[in-house]
UniProtKB/TrEMBL annotation:
InterPro entries: Pra-immunoreactive, RDD. The chain crosses the membrane at residues 31-56, 77-94, 132-156. Residues 28-177 form the RDD domain. This is RDD domain-containing protein. The lineage of its organism: Bacteria, Bacillati, Actinomycetota, Actinomycetes, Kitasatosporales. Its main location: membrane. Pfam families: RDD. It comes from Streptomyces smaragdinus. Keywords: Cell membrane, Membrane, Transmembrane, Transmembrane helix.
Length: 183
């Protein structure tokens, strides 16, 4: 065993100390960023409902004088599943590409926060795609009988950072080994 001392443990790379990292982003800024990004999701939803014909179906039902519940019952389930797929795939591409490129979605940029690698504070690169997948893809269940589970996971995932210490990570951060810091 040359070069190895029995009285010293081998060098192990540990998680960075909080003092070495940019300050963690406060929960209020993270929430504000998600609200802004939800506007992107809303635009995607509008595009998806128009593209699948769902929007037109609802408008025709409203013109007939159908109430909201009757309009919803008249929807074609295949169109709804397709619309959910378009929305969540679009959101995955939006978030994944922007996080991989510069660590910021439009919402994060607007409030001055970014996603960084936990190990060294660098841009997430391909890990931005992992983070986006864990955040967006459970929403695909929304158009299925398992939609409640997807929404429940999304709520638990989004609130996980409140009790997580010391890095205040959500589950999508843990999966990608990222943190959210001030830009």
């Amino acid at each position: 065993m040359t070069g190895m001392s029995l009285d010293q443990p081998p060098a192990v790379r540990t998680q960075p100390e909080l003092a070495e990292m940019a300050p963690l982003a406060p929960g209020g800024l993270r929430f504000a960023a998600r609200v802004i990004d939800a506007l992107v999701l809303l635009v995607l939803w509008l595009v998806a409902t128009v593209a699948t014909g769902m929007f037109g179906d609802v408008m025709r039902a409203q013109e007939r004088g159908d109430g909201l519940m009757e309009s919803a019952e008249a929807l074609d389930p295949a169109k709804a599943v397709l619309a959910f797929g378009i929305v969540y795939l679009g959101y995955f591409l939006y978030e994944g590409a922007l996080l991989a490129h510069n660590g910021q979605t439009l919402g994060k940029r607007a409030v001055g926060i970014r996603v960084a690698m936990l190990a060294d504070g660098d841009l997430p690169g391909h890990r931005g795609w992992t983070r986006a997948a864990v955040y967006a893809f459970p929403g695909l269940l929304g158009g299925s009988p398992f939609g409640l589970f997807g929404q429940l996971f999304w709520v638990v995932n989004s609130l996980w950072f409140v009790r997580d210490h010391p890095y205040h990570q959500c589950l999508h951060d843990k999966a990608a080994k990222t943190v959210v810091v001030r830009a």
